[in-house]
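In this supplementary section we document a worked example of the pipeline. Step one takes a protein sequence of length 568 as its only input; no multiple sequence alignment statistics are reported here. Step two produces a three-dimensional model, which step three serialises into structure tokens for compact storage. The input and output of this example are shown verbatim.
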Amino acid sequence: MSTPPQARRNRSGHFIINGSDGLAYRLADQLTQRYGADVVVLMTRDQHRSGRDFTELSRVRLVIVDRVDEKALLQAEIQEASGIALTVQDDVGNIHIALQARDLLPNLRVVVRMYNTHLGQAIERLLGDCRVLSDAEIAAPALVATALGEVAATPVTVAGRTLIVAKRNDVPERDIVCGLADTSTLGDPRLLPAGESDLVLAEARSAEAVELINTVRVPGPAPKHRWWRLRAARAMVRALVSRKLGIAFITVILTLLVSGALLAFANESIGGWDGFYLTLVNAFGGPQEHADFSRFEQVLQILIGIAGLAVVPLVTALIVEGMVNARIAVTQGKLVQPLVDHVVVVGLGGVGTRVIRLLSDRGMRVVAIDNNPQARGVPLANELGIPVIVGDASRETTLRSAGVDRCRALMAVASTDVINLEAALHGRNLQPSLRVLVRLFDGDLSRRVRTAFNLKFTRSVSYVAAPAFAEALMDRDVIGTISVERRVLLLAQIVVAPGSRLAGKKVSDADEAGEARVIALTELGEPRPMWNPAEHREIQARDLLTVVCTRDGLSRLIRRAAAPQPVA
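The serialised model returned by step three reads:
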């Protein structure tokens, strides 16, 4: 017999997480530390060997199996679970496990990580009580905005209104809904401060506000450097000709020029044109006998002849090497036409693929780097005409091939912290003023990197996406997430239950500086919400509150808005 929906909602069992990467780790940490839940992490032996270390998390039990199937789900005690999160980067595998879990427990809450969100919408309808999320889709807009020095608009629709995140000076005062953060101070930003905020939540109804939505706005042409054409030509030569061969050719040409000039100056009877003529004749026809030449002039003549012998083979070698390198570059998809003021993206996994799509949609010029020619984003890059360099991004030569020394920004968003950090440091060496965004999982490493290496923009994809997965697993109505540097705000809706501690209180009692802010209140039966309700407005039972809050603030508001527990 299946469990009734209401009984499932009230079940206080553990949560199951299938996965072993950073998102699974952050999700387990969220559920245990912030919500006090017990977690069972289910993974295969291969995933355990290459995954994160979950032993340092309390209230987490590992179940390691050869294969995740119905038997493994039973071993994880799925019958007593309140929900299951499938966080492995395998869309088909996650769907298969979701179907198995649904067969074992028809009313189980299921949260699925999928890259293909269009397919995910169909899965939600078919499975029922299922939420499909993409960590790449959640985090990519914030990463792109940070790399370009902008604010991620993060549009969210609430009761027919589109809300965006913007700088206070970028939108009219009448469009501002509430302040979000004060980012003007040193260190971490102050979220939901009681005073003024430079980062605000605004309604996208004016032309200025609509223009801030990243998916719509396309920037104008990037400013050209004075010598950008010369830099591009130099980069093309570097891409086609090796350094040693180039030095040899330049040395021979300089030898001819200097020897010819000395020959013209040493003999007063030789003019400028005669000196040039004699230099060419001796270089390509061999030294010609001149009885009136002094010993010094004869030595110069012989030197010109020797240098002339090296010119033809060097020119031939340059042509052959250039043709071979050009053919190899085209075959491997490497950059053959150097760019200026472009964006270099390191890593073409799920996040990198979303990033190049967003940049391309905005008309930005992009060059991608990945060491795997079969990476997820390679077909999309080829479709969009984005050059892909197959190589190790932690090597300076690879970054030079991508034009990091003349690019607008470098986004190191590979799944490995070491590769991202090395790429960022090499990129900064090639261009000291380069704007670099580094994807780092470890928060402590991120803080130390910002201080020691002056890499200000470090972000964690799992840190941004994990709250959305946790709230979906807890079956809370979170309608959007707002990334503020390495911290996250939630946009949620809460129903005030009769007899709760919040019923009968004023709106000001629900607001808490640094924790929560009520931006709209909808009375029972009313089709439209009351935006920015007055602080003295009384909250009635069954009112729907739309709030912007931190994760801790949302938990406290939910507890205050919940119905009182019956006394045993």
